[in-house]
Amino acid sequence: MPTYKAPLRDMRFLMNEVFDFPKHYSQLSNGGDATPDMVEAILGEAARFCEEVLAPLNHPGDLEGCHFENGEVRTPKGFKEAYEQFVAGGWQGLSHPPEFGGQGLPMSMGLFKSEMMGAANWSFTMYPGLSLGAMNTIMQHANDEQKAVYMPPLVEGRWTGTMCLTEPQCGTDLGQVKTKAEPQADGSFKITGTKIFISAGEHDLAENIIHIVLARLPDAPAGTRGISLFIVPKFMPKADGSVGERNGVACGSIEHKMGIRASATCVINFDGATGYMIAQPNKGLEAMFTFMNTARIGTSVQGIAHAELSYQGALAYAKERRSMRSVSGKKEPDQVADSLIWHGDVRRMLLTQKAIAEGGRAMIYFAAQYADHMVNGVIEGDQKKYEYWDDKLGFFTPILKGFLTELGLEAANLGVQVFGGHGYIKEHGMEQIVRDARISTLYEGTTGIQALDLLGRKTLLMTRGKCVREFTGQILSFCKNNALNKNMRPFVWQLSKLAAQWNMLTMRVMLTARKDREIVSSACSDFLMYSGYVTMAYFWALQAAVAYEKLEKGGAETPEFYKAKIQTAEFYFDRLLPRSKAHAAGIGASPRTLMQMDNDSFAMN
Predict the structure, then answer these.
(1) Are β-strands 189-199 and 72-74 bridged in parallel, bridged antiparallel, or unpaired?
(2) H or E segment to which residue 253 belongs
(3) Which listed residue, of 414, 504, 505, 605, carries a Cα 20 to 30 Å from 124's Cα?
(4) Rounded alpha-carbon distances, angstroms, from residue 503 to 395, 466, 573
């Protein structure tokens, strides 16, 4: 059974020595309270809560699952008490404004907390996690009166939130949404329709659930341009902030799922439910992207959370389990056999997990600084600042979500492989990580959807390749600054070539798309994975550069820690980065072999 231990050493290394979060926070209008002492205290307390409260509930919660009866959902044993501790600790409002009861800390502080919570118990983390997106959407798009009603209890954690997009007839294609919104004389709307796959849509943890719902006005145009956004509470709020009568919202059923079984995924029926519009009429999908982008970044955290948990379980097992002798001779002659960790192929799997978890963490922490600046734009009322950082973060969002969840699933599978047959058995907890991780590549947009967003929307349509040129420019600047460092030359040489190739491949797709638009769809998945491997390579090179510097001048960690960083970076460049070559070939391949077969020829019978 994996015993979760918060990776505080690696977190501190990234925060203090690689990305200099203390300096970063000092430049934010809401960063004054995020002093090194305050940050350290929060990290330590969050780690304790995750290790001692959430992690012990992870496996039992999976075995028990959620209970559904007469429209009500009961979470597994211990979840309600854990949520009460979560609320009492003020964790939900860590990064939200003090005027609504939050602590007003930068958004990245909430992300660090969410990473630890997700690795300790992803099912539990889903309940407050969905609330964050609802809170951010209300904060940005609701009016002052709506904020006054809904934000304080959401920030406190007394209420939770959801996002209700998908319907039985449509998944990603939200242009097919049929849920209706009928205007009422008092300015409210009657919401009628069915939403599916609603995470945390019904539960017994909080006294109220606030649904953020996409629906159509009677005169709305067809397609995505005719969708509006509404707040629909489970219980109607009273003037004093307490809950009143039940709204026309009901849970029809919960899904029987492959994983995250302790998280209730619901069918929610709206039967003339009272709702209130936020944002502009027929502009709901644009406003919902606030929620969706929040959720996508959260899902990318799931990738590294599962990689971290699986790695911790596999590493402990590989050190304890003995099997055969190393091919280079006995390593533990006094034992009946050598530990698994002495075998080269087992080390390959462990190092792959380590490279994914720590490389992915670096990618997310870098993006978290962009998110901090973006949120600061909102706080300061500076729309240009918000849009600037939103655009920069928007380029990374599909890479983080698509690439890191795919690699997180790979790392989870490797954990089972290290255990061998024992990994396939429930009692060891490794197979649960695989089942829990599997959904991460699907929800908030599948990997293919993220790939289309990255290549088709962000790269070709919106920026004509500028987003790639800007980031590769940052990579090349790093390479230039480290060109004379003999320790860094192997990294710099490869990175320089990859940055140039990334631009070349982008241009090739742009030119080909003028004649054959199918290239966008056929190349997008390879483009996303290629982008992910190159991006992670940059952040591993960056970590290696810092580690070399700390070995020479001294740092907060031991020499062994920094040496391990360099060795993991070398492993990544030697063993994982070469995968980018295959993806580069896929990007350049003609769509012909994908599209030439007649649809009927797919059948074998």
Answers:
(1) unpaired
(2) strand 249-254
(3) 414
(4) 15, 9, 20
- Full-prediction pTM beyond 0.85? yes
- Locate 596 and state its tokens: 């030439």
Q: Write out pLDDT tens, residues 27-75.
A: 999 999 999 999 999 999 999 999 999 999 999 999 999 999 999 999 9
One-letter amino acid of 569: A
Q: How far is residue 176 CA from its own chain's centroid?
A: 26
592: part of which helix (H) or strand (E)? helix 592-595
Buried-state track 419-436, b at ≥16 Cβ within 10 A, e below 16: beeebeeeebbbbbbbbb
Average pLDDT of the segment spanning 335-353:
97
- Secondary structure class of 77 (helix, strand, coil): coil
In whole angstroms, give the CA distance from residue 160 to residue 203: 10
- Supply the angle between the helices 122-141 and 55-64 in degrees, to the nearest 10: 100
405-461 pLDDT, tens digit per residue, is 999 999 999 999 999 999 999 999 999 999 999 999 998 889 999 999 999 989 888
d(CA 80, CA 512): 55
Residue with tokens 């600047």, as numbered in its chain: 477
Distance CA 23, CA 310 (A): 33
DSSP strand pairing (208-215 vs 159-164): parallel
Contact 75, 97 (CB under 8 A): no
- Helix, strand, or coil here: 248? coil
What does the H/E/C string look like for 516-541?
CCHHHHHHHHHHHHHHHHHHHHHHHH
Kindly give the interhelix angle for 579-588 and 518-553, rounded to the nearest 10 degrees.
150
Task: Give catalytic status of residue 444 as yes or no.
Answer: yes
Cα separation, 330 vs 188, whole angstroms:
75
**Which of 308, 410, 444, 557 is flagged as catalytic?**
444
* Cβ-contact 281, 229 below 8 angstroms: no
Angle at 277 between CA 272 and CA 278, to 5 degrees: 150
DSSP 103: -
Residue 425, CA distances (Å) to 1, 412, 430, 531 in order: 10, 14, 8, 36
